[in-house]
Amino acid sequence: MxxxxxxxxxxxxxxxxxxxxxxxxxxxxxxxxxxxxxxxxRNLVLLVVxxxxxxxxxxxxxxxxxxxxxxxxxxxxxxxAGNGLFLSLTAMVVVLPLFLPLAVSVVxxxxxxxxxxxxTLRYLLVAPVRRGRLLAVKYTAALAFCLAAVLVVAAAGVAxxxxxxxxxxATLLSGTTIALSETLxxxxxxxxxxxxxxxxxxxxxxxxxxxTEVPIGAMAxxxxxxxxxxxxxSIPQVSVVHPYLFTHRWLxxxxxxxxxxxxxxxxxxxxxQAAWAxxxxxxxxxxxxxxxxxx
Length: 295
Known about the structure:
Blueprint (H helix, E strand, L loop, with lengths): L9 H4 L4 H22 L1 H23 L22 H10 L3 H12 L2 H6 L2 H4 L6 H34 L5 E2 L5 E2 L1 H18 L1 H12 L4 H19 L30 H27 L5
Antiparallel strand pairs: 1-2
Helix pairs in contact: 2-8, 3-4, 3-5, 3-8, 4-8, 5-8, 5-10, 5-11, 8-9, 8-10, 10-11, 10-12
């Protein structure tokens, strides 16, 4: 009889590599974070409020005896009665200065500070995940909320516009008439661009969230910086800093309503958001990686 031991079962004895285990942990953490963001009642209320804005605009125009004329009110509002798809674009302009930044500030500002305030942050760090990866998960969830918020506005605008007004071929700012399908595609691209335009603000909110354990303070600081940036962007005397403000090209989505599309401003807007995100995320990592969250 042989004294050699039987070969061991590889599947039973193999130890997962630390990198693979880390990736699985990050995946579970991301799914949990996304679920928490989109199940939280406060965030759902924010999405409902955003969805109601195009509904209110559409109802106001439908019930009004006088339709807005060219140059009256927000951009595109004078075109809604002729084509309901423009309601989405008008709603996007309306939510950009305050309502959308408010929603993003609440979610991003609460990301780390909320966990620290509740005392759950130290339990998150018990999992085999680095602090940098935890920040990446929090930022990814904030970006997902940004995209969801603008898509909610766009969808509510399209649905309300189609219900209250005629829809069909649309005339672009350049005078070209496009088919309904292309109009819907451009509306989607506008929503995606606006969602990406919130990336810089979300990174500012994440940075503010690492600097305090008071969520409302991080939210207020983020929203305040958004308002200050917009105010500076409206002052001609400081035009030298305008191109570097994260709010400067928020309305550049108008280039998507021309034929051909002038993509230069759009790419500059995306690059501006990427630069702000890179700087703020680096500062957030530097702060978060050196902070004591064990107590």
